[in-house]
Amino acid sequence: MAAVCALAVAFALLLPLTQSSGDGSTGTGGQGVAEGIQAKAEDCVNAQDQSPPPSDLDGKTIEAIKARKGEDRKLIVGVDQNSYRWGYRDPNGGRAAELEGFDIDLVHRIAKDILGDEDAVQFKAIPTNQRIPAIKAGRVDMIVRTMTISCARLNDVAFSAPYFLTGQQVLAPKSSTIKGYDKTLAGKRICSAKGSTALEKLEADQAAKKVPAASADISTKVPNQLDCLVRLQLGLVDAVVTDGALAASQAAQDPTVELKGATFTKEYYGVAVKQGATDLAARVNRILEQYIADGSWQKSYNKWLLPTLGSDSQSADPPKPRYK
């Protein structure tokens, strides 16, 4: 366990040297980050079906990205860098511990399509609770960071079609009596990340007095999802509620914890962009179609996620998109 804690600390030490300002910024954005208009989602039913049809056309958002000059001619993308197998830096890896993982593979593919160079990317490490603020403030062109598409989030940002299917799940020590998202969680201390759909679910169930959240202590809320694993390791909480795909990767990091019970929600990850950046969302949707059709999605899944999620998981195949 000490080794795992050390690994978590190592990830933290590898954060970029950009400092966060009072508005949650992790650095200044490049030139030409898209302007957008707000769109509301009061009538939203299936959030994952609200993205525009795929398109190869360049609109004002993509034109602004392509117009960047010299060293600034990069796609600015908010990512995670401490989610094992999704977006992380392997201290023992090559290429100066560059970012790698399932989400990172997708970012490189998007950059290659839009700018002709898969390495034309400026990565920005964005905490879970700063994903939407980073987009709204124009500090990034997009977020590719295990971000669930939801009706509530459509009030603030726009999304691509879904590129991954998962669901909320419980992570707890193997020795724990917790069996899943059920009465065995009642009265337990549960950790979740600020700005996450896990926290939204816990708070909604607690307000509705539903088991298990009704009597659970859900006051432990952290900026980054990995922080929950550290608190679990230290015995400060009894369980973590997060996306099952992320929980599986955390269980792979620490052999003393495991997934408890099945997923209890259905959630789709999407690429988040600014409201009004319809051309960028449509281009990402075209890229996703090609990424899936030529086998690149499956190749990335097999490399990064097959060891933790397996081949019979609901996540083992890309979701089929529907557009508005």
Provide tags for this entry:
324 residues, alpha/beta, five-stranded mixed beta sheet, 15 strands, 30% helix, globular
How far apart the termini lie comes to: 47 Å
The largest pleated sheet is described as: 5 strands, mixed
Ranges where pLDDT stays below 50 over 5 or more residues in a row are: 1-41
Major beta sheet, strand line-up: 5-1-6-15-7
* Shape label: globular
Mean pLDDT: 88
Radius of gyration: 19 Å
Number of strands: 15
Structural class: alpha/beta
SSE ordering: HHEEEEHEHEEEEEHEHEHEEEHHH
Secondary structure tally, helices: 10
User: What percentage of residues falls in helices of 4 or more residues?
Assistant: 25-40%
Portion in beta strands: 15-25%
Layout: helices, strands, pairs:
Blueprint: H1 2-13, H2 60-66, E1 75-79, E2 82-83, E3 87-89, E4 99-100, H3 102-115, E5 121-125, H4 131-136, E6 142-143, E7 157-159, E8 164-166, E9 168-173, E10 189-193, H5 197-207, E11 217-222, H6 226-233, E12 239-243, H7 244-253, E13 257-260, E14 267-269, E15 272-274, H8 278-293, H9 296-304, H10 306-309
Parallel strand pairs: 1-5, 1-6, 10-11, 10-12
Antiparallel strand pairs: 2-3, 3-4, 6-15, 7-15, 8-14, 9-12, 9-13
Summarize the structure.
The chain is of the alpha/beta class and 324 residues long. It has helices at residues 2-13, 60-66, 102-115, 131-136, 197-207, 226-233, 244-253, 278-293, 296-304, 306-309; strands at 75-79, 82-83, 87-89, 99-100, 121-125, 142-143, 157-159, 164-166, 168-173, 189-193, 217-222, 239-243, 257-260, 267-269, 272-274. A hairpin with a 3-residue loop joins strand 2 (82-83) and strand 3 (87-89).
